[in-house]
Specification:
The chain is mainly α and 167 residues long. The protein has helices at residues 4-16, 19-24, 44-67, 83-92, 97-116, 120-124, 137-161, and strands spanning 74-76, 126-129, 133-136.
Length: 167
Amino acid sequence: MDDLSGRLRDAGSRLLDLRGPLVAGEPWPLSAAYGTEPEADWGPREVLAHVNEMLPYWATQLRLILAGDPADATPFGRVATDADRLGRIASDRQLQCGDLLDRIATGLAIAEDLLAGLTPADLERRGLHTARGEITVGAAADRFVVTHVAEHVVQLRTILERPGLRA
């Protein structure tokens, strides 16, 4: 598998590079639809709140798989309707973008360290995701962390380009 930690570092840098316009755009309006509705309805603070909560969540879930029995696929994960996920987004979206970005920077560093330390054997360990079924640590790290952050960078850029977003 390619360099997961390097790809996460790149995606994280692109996200953190948006600090200027995100902070300058405050106060961003809070979305009325931030739950399981389409994420396209999210504003900057909902996206950042989600990234802030998902980085430590998925790092913990990957560690859970690694701590499990290597002979079995360890149950892990959640679905979008998870109450803890939605509660964290509801809470964290009240924070200013600068505060969220500072917290995200910490979460990125922790996730990058985790991914950098994975051995080839670790990458092949198997988890059993709630909705996606059996998946390796490498594939889970790629989908739920690296690609996920990169997708939210694109989402934030799209939001920042949207006319008339500010209250």
